[in-house]
Amino acid sequence: MPKPIRYLLYLAVFALLAYNSVYFKKLDEVKAGTAAFDAAGYARDFWDKKLTPGLSKATDLNALTALLKTDKEKAFNEHSHALGIGNIRYFLVKGQGVVTDVNENEVSVELVNAGQTAGNVRLATEYIFGNAVRDASGAIDINAFTNSMDFNNVSAEINKLIREKVVPPFKSKVKKGDRVTFHGAIELNRAHLQVNDIEIIPVNLQIEKP
Amino acid sequence: MKNSIHYRIAFFCILFGIGFISCKTKESKDEPKKIAIVISTLNNPWFVFLAQKAEAKAKQLGYESKIFDSQNNTAQETDHFDNAIASGYDAILFNPTDADGSIVNVKNAVAAGVPVFCMDREVNANGAATSQILSDSYSGCVAIGKYFVETLNKKGKYVEILGMVGDNNTWNRSKGFHSVVDFYPGLKMVAQQSADFDRNKAMEVMESILQAHPDIDGVFCGNDAMAMGAYQALVAAGKAERVKVFGFDGAEDVVKSIQDGKILATGMQFPEVMAQTAATFADEYFKGKRDFPGKMPVAVELVKKDNVENYAAYGEKE
After folding, report:
1. Upper half-sphere CA count for residue A73 (Cβ side, 13 Å)
2. How far apart are the first and last CA of chain B?
3. Of B138, B150, B301, the CB nearest to A87
4. How confident is the model at residue B301, as a pLDDT?
C-alpha cells in the first residue's frame, strides 16, 4: 500500500477514535440535572388526578385520634405515608366542627363527633409549608424522581396551589361559630406523638350554610 | 511433537484456570462478605459516630467491615476505593468528600461490580451510586424557617451563616430556610456569609457582621458548630439575650444550649438511621435486590425548647 494512503488511513482511524473518545457538554446542563422537570405542572396534575379524587379515602380525624390513643402502631401502619424514612409521617384526614377562633395565622375548630365535641384542631391559613400534602395521600412514588430538588419543588408548588385556591375563599368568609367541613393533611411524629395540638394543612374547606 | 507440546500447555492452562476458579469460589463461599466504610473525615465526631454505627450494623448482619478515613482529601479517597476494589470488598458504604470530585470513585467501584451506598452526603450524578441515603436537609430547614418566622413574628433583620459553599447540604439547607422566610418582606437578610461549618470561623464572621449591623434580631446557621460560634460572638458583644440563634445538626452542645434557652432551635439529623439503612441496603443487595431508590431522604426533626427533652446528641433519647 502506498505510504500516503497508509498515513491517510492512520489519520482517519485516529480522528475517528479521538472524535468518539471526547465529547463536550455545557456544565450548566450537567449541573441542572433534570432542569426540564416541570414542578408546577406535576403539582397541578397531582392535584387534579390523584389528590382531589383521593380525598374520599381520607381518614376521619376523630376515628384516627381514637386509634392513635389505643393502637398507635396500627394507626401509623394503616393510615400514614411518607416519601422518606424516619419518625415524621403524614395522614390524609377529614372532619367537621365549629369555628372557635379566627386569627391571622389559623382558624381554630372544635371537632364534632356524633353530636358531641371532640377536641380542638387548627386549620393553617398562613403557614402552608412542608411536605404534608405531597406525602399524605401516598400517591407519589419517590422512585419517580431522580433529583431531590424536584420533589422539594413539588411540595412548594402544591403548597402554592393551597395558598392560591383553597385558603383565600375560605378566609374571606369564615367567622367564629361557623360550622365547617375540611379535608387536609397532618404531620405526626411516630416516636414523639402529640395528638392534642394537631395542625391541618387544608386541601378542601367548606363553610356549611346555617 | 510441536503439536503435542501445545496440547500440554493448553491442558495445564485449563487445569490451572479451573483450580484458580475453584479456589476463588471456595473463598467466596467460606468467608463472610466484606464491606468497606469510606468516611470523608474522622476528625469530626459526627462522622465518627456515622462510621461506628455503620460498622456495628454490618457486623450485626454478619459481615466483615473496615473503616477508611479520607481526611477530607479526594485523592486519599480514590486510594481507598482502589484498595477496596483490589482487596475484594463486596460493597462500599460511602460518605463522600466532594459532591463532584467523588463521582469518579463511585462510578469506578460500581463498574467493578461493587455497589456503593452514600450516607449523609451525596454525589452530583444521578444513578451513579447504587443508592444515596441522605438527611432531608431541605425539609428540615423548612421547619426551622417556619419556626424562625413565628418566633421573630414575621419581621426583623437577620443574618445567615452558610457552610462550605461547595457542599450540597449547605445549599439544600439554605434553600429550605429561604423557601419559607422569603415569603415575609418584613424579614430582611442584612448579611449572608460562609464560615465553612467551622465554629471559630463563624465566631469571627459574626463579630465582623455585628460591627456593620449591630441591630440584628436573628441568625440562621447551616450547622450547629457555627451556631455555637455565632452565639459566642453575640455573648461577647452583649447581644445574646436579644438575638435568636438557630442551628442544624443536633450536636450535643446545641441540644444542651436549647435546654438552657441560649439557642432557639436546631434540625436533628439521625446518622444512626442513615448508617443502618446503608448497611441494610448492602445486605439486601447481596441477597439479590437491585431496585433501590436513587435517593432516600431521612426525616430531620425540629428541636426546640418545648420538645428538647425527647432528644440527645445525634438522635433520640434511648
Report:
1. 0
2. 78
3. B301
4. 96
Could you tell me the end-to-end alpha-carbon distance of chain A, in angstroms, rounded to an integer?
100
Mutate one of B138, B290, B309, B314 to test the A interface: name it (highest A CB count within 10 A): B138
**Among B103, B173, B179, B269, which would you mutate to test the A interface (most chain A Cβ atoms within 10 Å of its Cβ)?**
B179
DSSP B185: T
Chain A hits for B316, Cβ within 8 Å: 87, 191-192
Mean pLDDT confidence for B245-256: 94
Q: Could you tell me the pTM of the whole model?
A: 0.81
Closest of A85, A89, A158 to residue B295, by C-alpha: A85
pLDDT digits (tens, 9 = 90+) for B41-65: 998 888 999 999 999 999 999 999 9
pLDDT of residue A30: 46
Residue B29's pLDDT is 52
A162 contacts in chain B (CB < 8 Å): none
- Confidence (pLDDT) at B72: 87
Lowest pLDDT segment from A94-108, A160-174, B5-19, B257-271: B5-19
Q: Do A130 and B146 touch (CB under 8 A)?
A: yes
Identify the CA nearest to B293 among candidates B98, B117, B37, B107: B117
The verdict on a CB contact (< 8 Å) between B277 and A85 is yes
As for the ipTM of the complex, it is 0.80
Kindly state the helix (H) or strand (E) to which residue A95 belongs, with its residue range: strand A88-102
Residue B124 and residue A31: Cβ atoms within 8 Å?
yes
- Residue B26 confidence (pLDDT): 41
Query: Which class for A203: exposed (0-12), middle (13-18), buried (19 or more C-beta within 10 A)?
Result: buried
The residue of chain A with its CA nearest to that of B269 is: A86
For chain A, the residues whose C-beta falls within 8 A of a C-beta of chain B are 31, 33-34, 82-88, 127, 129-131, 142-143, 145-149, 152, 155-156, 189, 191-192
Is B138 in CB contact (< 8 Å) with chain A? yes
CATH number for region A3-207: 2.40.50.420
Quick check: B294 and A152 CB within 8 A? Answer: no
Query: What does the pLDDT look like over A72-84, one tens digit per residue?
Result: 999 999 999 998 8
Query: Which sequence spans correspond to the domains of chain A?
Result: 3-207
Residue A119 CA to residue A111 CA, distance in Å, equals: 6
Best mutation target, B136, B155, B184, B289, to test chain A (most A CBs within 10 A): B136
**What does the pLDDT read at residue B16?**
53
Per-residue pLDDT at B5: 65
The enclosing H or E element of A42 equals: helix A39-46
Compute the mean pLDDT over every residue in chain A, rounded to the nearest whole number.
Answer: 89
